[in-house]
């Protein structure tokens, strides 16, 4: 299983420094979580190539509409079509769509939200197929999204789309909040799993919380999952989504990333 990292956790904006750091951490690649509108795809692609890194996914962290009035179906499709185009230009394998729920803020009911997402997913899936990019949805906890919080909810939603090419990302931190049984969730997703993300129950590195990563690892092997595995940890005192504030915290985070990567590689 190749190991990568969600780039936002590092809090590094210059592309050269970002790729250098990912390489120094001993990782194989990354989820590029930066605002694609602020970067030239050629620069990102060449920097990743220079350091021998794979851009596994374009996973936009800043995926909110700039204004409430922009939260429309057309606006969402336009934004994520741009993400797909960027993914093509940097040779990324897929694009994550969990941020699409941020664009439903003008919907007046859960039914309207579901219809909005269904239409958006269908149109974006068609566009991604033309561009030969795979899409993925990530099950995230209720504090980040009001929809698709569990593996089963993701599976049920995707089932109604029928002939789609959309996979699912599971994250140990989010599963700890939402799933009754995380191991069962991994088994339920099975071949639809495109990525597994690591962070312990406190959002820190492996062993800083109470998640049974040995059991998770064994279940991933059982279903034939081959990766990538993406590290998405922060320092527990900065959880859930704050990046290092100074040099000392950056070193602490990098040490935790290296330690967690080493522990994961040694699990059997």
Automatic annotation (TrEMBL):
InterPro entries: IolE/XylAMocC-like, Xyl_isomerase-like_TIM-brl. Keywords: Isomerase. Pfam families: AP_endonuc_2. Residues 22-242 form the Xylose isomerase-like TIM barrel domain. The keyword Kinase does not apply. The keyword Isomerase applies. GO terms for molecular function: isomerase activity. PANTHER family: HYDROXYPYRUVATE ISOMERASE. This is Sugar phosphate isomerase/epimerase. The lineage of its organism: Bacteria, Pseudomonadati, Bacteroidota, Flavobacteriia, Flavobacteriales.
């Amino acid at each position: 299983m190749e190991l990568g990292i969600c780039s936002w956790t590092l809090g590094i904006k210059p592309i050269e420094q970002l790729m250098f750091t990912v390489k120094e951490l001993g990782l194989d690649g990354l989820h590029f979580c930066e605002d694609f509108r602020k970067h030239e795809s050629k620069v990102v692609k060449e920097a990743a190539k220079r350091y021998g890194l794979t851009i596994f996914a374009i996973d936009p962290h800043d995926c909110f509409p700039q204004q409430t009035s922009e939260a429309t179906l057309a606006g969402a499709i336009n934004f994520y079509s741009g993400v797909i185009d960027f993914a093509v230009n940097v040779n990324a394998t897929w694009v994550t769509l969990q941020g699409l729920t941020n664009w439903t803020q003008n919907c007046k009911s859960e039914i309207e939200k579901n219809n909005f997402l269904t239409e958006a997913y269908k149109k974006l899936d068609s566009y991604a197929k033309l561009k030969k990019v795979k899409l993925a949805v990530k099950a995230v906890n209720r504090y980040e999204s009001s929809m698709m919080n569990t593996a089963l909810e993701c599976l049920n939603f995707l089932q109604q789309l029928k002939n789609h090419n959309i996979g699912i990302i599971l994250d140990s931190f989010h599963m700890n909040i939402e799933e009754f049984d995380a191991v069962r969730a991994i088994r339920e997703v099975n071949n639809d799993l495109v990525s597994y993300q690591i962070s312990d129950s406190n959002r820190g590195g492996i062993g800083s919380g109470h998640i049974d990563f040995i059991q998770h690892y064994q279940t991933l092997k059982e279903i034939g999952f081959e990766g990538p595995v993406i590290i998405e940890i922060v320092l527990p005192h900065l959880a859930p989504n704050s990046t290092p504030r100074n040099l000392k915290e950056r070193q602490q985070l990098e040490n935790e990333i290296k330690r967690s990567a080493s522990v994961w590689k040694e699990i059997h």
